[in-house]
Amino acid sequence: NPPRLLLSAVLTLPYTLLTLALFTAPLCADDFWYATFWRGGLPSFLALSAEHYQTFNGRALVHAAAQTALALGVPFCACCLLALLLGAAACAPRLTDADPLPAAAAFFLLLLTLPAALLREGLLWISAAFNYLLPTALAVAVLGLNRLWTENRLPLPARLLLPLAFVAAGATTEQMGLALTATLAVTGLALWLTRRTSLFRALLPALLTAAGAATVFLSPATLKRAAEATAAAPLQENLAPFARLLAGRDGILPHLALAAFVLALASLRDRTLPRPLLTGLAAAPLALLLAAPAPLPAVLLLLAVLTADGLALLSGGNPWSGALCLLTAATALVMLPTGVFEPRVTLPPALLACLLTACHWRRALPDTALRAETALLLSALLLSTACFAPTLRSCLANARLTAENNAAIAAARTTGRLTYDFGYDRRSCHALVTDDGFFYRTFLAYHGLEACEVTLVADGMAPLYTGDGRRLPSPAYREGGREFFPLRDIVEALGGSVTPEDGQTVFRLGRHWAVLRGDFLYCPVGSEELRLSLKGRRPERYYAFAVTADVLEQTFGIVPTPQGDGYLIVPAPGTFSGQ
Description:
By secondary structure, the protein is an alpha+beta fold. The chain is 61% helix and 10% strand. It has 23 helices and 13 strands.
């Protein structure tokens, strides 16, 4: 076996790289709002948390953790997230009877190979990390507690806290609440049917977890979102985006395939493991080959294999490895009814797949000489570092820009004027700080800039001017060689209004008006209503509502005119006549 010193070194380097990335992560989007929850003390925190539970979603536990950590600053958040990763890396080997040090080293190496979009939207966006990393780490810890509980090895003081742990694990997110409840129920029933525990010990964890999940699903905000999602997209319509998310360029299909393949190799070498695990030897390469031409069959094949692996391990072998397999597949499958297909939602199955691989890779390897196994570890280290290097460079560049912006903000509190550079490298930054209404106001409130005159700038983005020479707060945003114009800024700068009404946004400018509903903009043309599709007409990575020039012209008659270094924005003739 490789010396422990080498394994420690292999563990230290990826951990150090992740530490650098997390400590330099900029605040984005929701982070600014959550960081202000504690500013008015406990009464303010409770009032805002209650409003969030009623209005946004029922994830009270994870949001309370995020809000508290953000109030203490980015370094504290980074320490919390690193502790969660270390906790998961420590709990999973105990669950699967693996050697902790090789498992932890492999886990952190695999983390560096996760898709850049997942790292950006999941780990490096603080609010999202608490929403998806915290539930995953808690779920792995709860599976470990469940093992001690069913085997009657839990000390009496810990038994008193057991209900709280299971309820808390279920009360994290909709995704983890459903997946963990199902996993605990199946695992408990399997243990009871094979007479390895009593029915009470088998079912109590699942019932407590379901009670915790109910606190999320029964919140008014979650019920409203569920009704809207059901009305908007039947379950079968979710299959295509689900497959694209997992099997696309930024998907986690390779990590799922690696987990299935490693389990298969381990069963080939270890005669105590059930034979059905061998299906991964053929299924994993086949799924990777099918990913481009047929993403849905590839995804379903791998999830079916992981589910079958879990059930096989429950019936023979280590049932807790089986529970980890089932939880991995379940956290992916529950995306279908929830209808949320963002890269960050794949963080739980990605982390669990990495844990599965990390805990079983040593069992999958034949007995080899020290030199060969050392070469394998070092090769994996080089590959992981190369995969993560662009993300780390982006993090360091964003950290320099954040330092410059913070210096400008400090000066703006005296001068009342701020020029804020929002040209962050988007390989590691979730969302740009833009003048988009709600998130922009929370950005101003976080920095105490409500009374400042703020101008947002970025390299390569053209400023916008009104007819009387005023510069708009946001520039025209450039993405993919095209320019998009911030509709809210333009309408308000020209004397119009933007108001939310019944779940939609109404833009009014003189005699013109338009209503934003989902991916469509509705506006009157004579006696008819024009319905403009916005697909391909607004940017993918811009938080403000920005549109192409043809949308501006069709809705408000505004034609951006190139002038100097930017564009002149003036209302169409007759806009304010007849008011």
